[in-house]
Amino acid sequence: MSSLRETSLNTHLPLLSTGKVREIYKLPNSQLLFVTTDRISAYDIVLSNSVPQKGAILTQLSEFWFNFLSTKIPTLQTHFLSSGIPPTVLPPQIQTPSLTHRSMTVKACTVFPIESIVRGYLSGSAWSSYQINNTINNIPLPPNLQESSKLETPLWTPSTKAAPGEKDENISPARAAELIGTEYCNKISALSLQIYETAAAYALDRGIIIADTKFEFALDESVNPPEVVLVDEVLTPDSSRFWSKETYKFGRSQESYDKQPLRDWLVKTGQKGKEGVEMPEDIVNATSKRYQEAYEKLVGKKWDPAID
Fold first, then answer.
1. d(CA 194, CA 93)
2. 84's torsion region: left (phi>0), alpha (psi -120 to 50) or beta?
3. Measured between alpha carbons, how far is 26 from 68 in angstroms, rounded to an integer?
4. What are the CB-based long-range contacts (under 8 Å, 24+) for 100-103?
5. Which residues pair with 27 in a beta bridge?
6. What is the pLDDT of residues 23-66, one digit of tens each?
7. How many angstroms separate the CA atoms of 40 and 55, rounded?
8. By the 8 A CB rule, do 266 and 43 touch?
9. How far, in Å, CA of 51 to CA of 259, rounded?
10. Quick check: pTM over 0.85?
11. pLDDT tens-digit profile of 242-265?
C-alpha cells in the first residue's frame, strides 16, 4: 500500500510551513489548507519511511471531533471550516481522493505560543516528574500515587511551543499566564478541561481511556472582540494517549492506541533519537493497526481503506 510522504503543492499554493507530519498552505480569504502526510515521528525524530493511511486517519478523526465538540459545547469556537480542498484552488487532476481525504480547510488565526495539555492519569513525563518530587508542572499531588493512576481531577499542565528542532518545556500555569496573559490563560485552561472531560466521557463509553491529550488554541482577530478558538489536530493518536479500558490496570505502563509499537522497537534496537531510521514492515503494520483501531472505536464505523 502506497503512502504520501510529501504533498508538493507549492507550485499552486504558497507553502507556509512544514512540520513533522503536517503541511500548511495559504488559501484566499484568510483561510489555510492543512494536509496531513503519512510521515511519523518518535522522540522528536521523523522516521525515514511512513505509515500508509495515517494522515487520512488523523484528518478524519480530527474532523469527527471538531463536529462532535461543537455540538456538545455550543460556545466552543474552532478554526475548522470544511473537509477537503476548495474546488477552485487546485487543478482537478491534482485533487485525488488520497489528497482530499487528508486535507481540511481552516480559518487563519494567530496561534498562542503554548501547548495546552490536560492529564487525567499519571503517565509519561508527568509520572517521571511525580517520582522526583510529587508534582506535575509545579502542581503538588498526593503522595503514594502509582504509575497510570487516575487523578482525582484532570489537571491542566501547559508547555511551551518549541521552535522546530527544539523540545517543548513543561511550565506551570502561572508561567503560561505570563506568556499569554491571565485572561487568555484562564480561558484556554477552562476550555481545555471542558473539552477533555466531554471527550473522555464519550471515549470511555466506547472502550478507550484518554489518559492525556494536547490541544492548541489561537486567537481569531477577524471578529470583535477577538475569540479564542480550538485549532490544529484534536484528540488523535498523535496528540493523545489512548488506552484500552478493558486492559487498564494502574501500577504499570499501558498499551496505547498510537505509535507505541514504534517507540518500543526504537528503544529495544538502540535507535531512539537517531536520524535516518527506517521501520521494518511489521512495525509499520502494527502501528497502522493501532491508528485504525482508535478511529473505529471512537467514530463507531470501520475504517475504509478505499478512502486513501
1. 42
2. left
3. 26
4. 101/56, 101/59, 101/60, 101/307, 101/308, 102/4, 102/35, 102/36, 102/37, 102/55, 102/56, 102/58, 102/59, 102/308, 103/33, 103/34, 103/35, 103/36, 103/59
5. 31
6. 999 999 999 999 999 999 998 899 999 999 999 999 999 999 99
7. 9
8. yes
9. 10
10. yes
11. 999 999 999 999 988 988 889 889
User: Helix/strand/coil (H, E, C) string of the chain?
Assistant: CCCCCCCCCCCCCCEEEECCCEEEEEECCCEEEEEECCCCEECCEECCCCCCCHHHHHHHHHHHHHHHHHHHCCCCCECEEEECCCCCCCCHHHCCHHHHCCEEEEECCEECCEEEEEEEECCHHHHHHHHHHCEECCEECCCCCCCCCEEEEEEECCEECCCCCCCCCECCHHHHHHHHCHHHHHHHHHHHHHHHHHHHHHHHCCCEEEEEEEEEEEEECCCCCCEEEEECCCCCCCCEEEEECCCCCCCCCCCECCCHHHHHHHHHCCCCCCCCCCCCHHHHHHHHHHHHHHHHHHHCCCCCHHHC
Q: Are residues 41 and 20 in contact, defined by beta-carbon separation less than 8 angstroms?
A: yes
